């Protein structure tokens, strides 16, 4: 892992991004050379124009593929869908490239060259992915980890990381100090010898302290010896923050939050985020206006012109201040006649139009006005209703901390976790929200905005 502005990035996926970017650049640049080599016409493009066109092609294609999740380290085997994601990414890239030619004709590249570049890029990318998937299975790219502990925390780590495309770490085994109830399967235990001998025998890269009770059974002297010998020693919370991009609520303590880095809310950063929100909201409002008008017409046709178009709802915002969030109405007008309740899958209260606009997130577009007004930001924890917040704050520790920043239209939890409809889901999403609050930066915001394309196309979190 490499940390950029407090956010952890997989070095393996970063390397894949760089390699494929170079491949895409070469596809256009050498594709033009190949085209004119077999053509009877002379090469009429200037070298600078070819270089700029290659840069544009590689940049648009790489960003589109990143936007649909092909460089996301937490993408699972079930949702990988390489061919469909590749097709969408390439289609979007072509649209961006052709649009750029329209506004900047001097960068125009002929269809023959563009076709060659696309063909070469597709097959080169599939070859890169084939090699990447083979390498991802090899332990050479995985950090060798020894888990100190054999209880519930150790068992949780052993089960983690199994469903991802690239497993960033490999659990070599668990070591017990002999004072903890064993939950981990005996096949995963390494207790033949002392800690130093096991480290040398298995060439351990890092020790993760995952004891259920660190107050009485922490082998401090052994860990100090390992640390002084140059071995990495990390606590459980830092491990999950780095590898899973969330704060493990089950083990989170106030003292860890006090002494950990992050939670920076400087005036300049806040001002810059606000300026970006204003500019982005105005720009998006102009671009989304035709879609919003069509949505208004569709709602009126389905529900009648006297039925409300917008749905206003009280939500909890920054510093626990309530505000009124705007959405296109996607449910029947009597949806809450039985009281406040979570939306659920295949909700029978949703209208036909509402079901569609929820899946593609069109119902969220009026929240642009909330962003422009300053009640919300584009990126942040999703605002929750006061009726739910009151209950969550009583039952879920640190739930109030998610309100330290402005709520957002999209967020880290929406990217990493599906839609939540109960208290358990609220706990899982809170772990990602706390990661965002702790590690907030403009870089993380841009990362989330880029990946929001994936949320819309694949319907993640929509219900």
How many separate helices? 17
- Strand coverage percent: 5-15%
Q: How many strand elements?
A: 10
Shape label: globular
Calculate the terminal CA-CA distance, rounded to whole Å.
Answer: 33 Å
Residue windows where pLDDT falls under 50 for at least 5 positions = none
**Main pleated sheet:** 4 strands, parallel
**Biggest β-sheet: strands ordered side by side in the sheet:** 4-3-5-6
**What is the string of SSEs from the N terminus onward?**
EEHHHHEHEHEHHEHHHEEHHEHEHHH
Could you report the average pLDDT, rounded to the nearest whole number? 84
**Total count of domains:** 3
How would you classify the helix and strand content by structural class?
Answer: alpha/beta
Helix content: 40-55%
- Over the alpha carbons, how many angstroms does the gyration radius reach? 26 Å
Describe this structure in words.
With about 475 residues, the chain is α/β, with parallel strands linked by helices. The chain folds into three domains: about 140 residues, no CATH class; about 110 residues, Rossmann fold (3-Layer(aba) Sandwich); about 190 residues, no CATH class. The chain is about 50% helix and about 10% strand. It has 17 helices and ten strands. The strands form four sheets. It has a four-stranded parallel β-sheet, sandwiched between helices. α1 packs across α2, α1 packs antiparallel against α4 and α2 crosses α3. It starts with a strand and ends in a 5-residue tail after the last helix. The model has no long low-confidence stretch (mean pLDDT about 85).
Question: What keywords describe this structure?
Answer:
463 residues, alpha/beta, Rossmann fold, 17 helices
